[in-house]
Amino acid sequence: MSNINKYIPIISIILISLFFSCSESNYIPISEVPEIEFSTVGDITLTDHSFVNTTNSQNVSIVNSLDETGFHFYNSLKFKTEAIGILVGGTGLRARITQDGGSSWTEFRFSKFANAFHSVSFSDNAIFIVGESKYIFRSMDFGANWSVFNAESLFGKESSSSLVQHKFYKIHFISETVGFIAGERDNAPLLMKTSDGGEQWRIVNGDESLKSSGAITDFFMHSDEELTIVTSIGKCYKTDDGGTHWELVYETDPLNSIAFKDKNTGFIGGINGTLHYTSNGGKDWSTIDVPENPNIADIVFLENEALITTSISYSDKRNTFVYKIDENGKNIQPFLTKSDDNVLFMGDSYAIDVLNNNVYILDRNNLYKTTRN
Asked: What's phi and psi for 334, nearest 5 deg?
């Protein structure tokens, strides 16, 4: 018996090693998913063009542009470095990646249908993209290879119905390990969390209050456990326990976007010029008038001000679609204007990103790069 006992630790180590060596990733290569119709176009080279922002006399570079501004549009962007950036949108679950600061792009398409990507984020070097699909798309090597995580697998037995609809509106990481995805599944709000850099995801099952909240359209992570979310029916909730319990802090018109400078100072925005400001963490809110009453699409904070980009999809041309506002929720002014008639502002903008001193602004198919004031 003693001889057997002395081998038990060794056997245990071997079994544990075998378990981990045999474990498979939760991600499937896209080549193994028949419903994903993958295609790629490389070396899309763009002609250099720039213009002057007449608001602040800063130079603006156009680092991505398409002549056809119909259904081939972009909803979200993220730059990891000044060289590496990605745009995502539609139709056909479309993405473009640059590794030279926008001089050239590689385009990827994952669907033959009209569904669009809505959000993109980095976790270390991994790219994660989500949109109107049950799949979370991931590339560990800046687009050379792609794999997917089937979010439907989180609901017990994988659904066999093709009628189940998934719309993931935002993905953000607060660190290299912790991130959330927000959206809806069959018109019910859905929030998912990862604690291992996106390798695994779990559903955040909140209390009853969220079940009638509408789709979760955006969120802000104050910490791993503290979130504030906004929804498609105009509700704003916060949690301080990772989503187990939620507190309704405000109700207004349908909301698209949220940004906080710290736990106290923040903005929420939505349709028809809906823009509200809080200086005490959501206890009180003030209303801000936005010129033209556009849809507030995205908000990002700088040091002492916020930038707001907007959309009016039925407009052929808008003189101003990006605004700046101070950290006290006052003095809203245009941020991006022009006198160059060769540059067309569609004013159908859904995303803005800030990296170091650079500001990146999407306007349907145009990507503008400028600097802070």
From this structure: -60, 145
Q: Judging by beta carbons within 10 Å of its beta carbon (0-12, 13-18, 19+), is residue 358 exposed, middle or buried?
A: middle
Task: Tell me how far apart the alpha carbons of residues 194 and 204 are, in angstroms, rounded to a whole number.
Answer: 10
Question: For residues 352 and 300, is the Cβ–Cβ distance under 8 A?
Answer: yes
DSSP state of 102: T
Query: Are 153 and 166 contacting, i.e. CB atoms less than 8 angstroms apart?
Result: no
Report whether the peptide linkage leading into residue 91 is cis, meaning its omega lies within 30 degrees of zero.
yes
Look at residue 89 and give its three-state secondary structure. strand
- What phi-psi label fits residue 303: left (phi over 0), alpha (psi between -120 and 50 degrees) or beta? alpha
State residue 13's pLDDT score: 40
Residue 198 in contact with residue 179, Cβ under 8 Å? yes
pLDDT tens digits for range 221-278: 999 999 999 999 999 999 999 999 999 999 999 999 999 999 999 999 999 999 999 9
Look up residue 327 and give its amino acid. E
Q: 130-153 as b/e, with b when 16 or more CB fall inside 10 Å?
A: bbbbbbbbbbeebbeebbbbbbbe
Q: Which of 116, 98, 124, 118 is nearest to 45 (CA)?
A: 98
CA distances from 206 to 179, 187, 230, 268, 306 (A): 17, 16, 15, 22, 30
Q: How far apart are CA 142 and CA 327, in angstroms?
A: 35
Contact, 269 vs 287, CB < 8 A?
A: no
Residue 272 CA to residue 301 CA, distance in Å, equals 21
Kindly give the parts of the chain with pLDDT less than 50: 1-2, 4, 7-23
Residues 6+ apart with CB under 8 A from 13: none
Structural contact between residues 270 and 290, judged by C-beta atoms closer than 8 angstroms: no
* pLDDT, position 17: 39
pLDDT of residue 161: 58
C-alpha to C-alpha distance for 373 and 365, rounded to whole angstroms: 24
The predicted pLDDT at position 42 comes to: 83
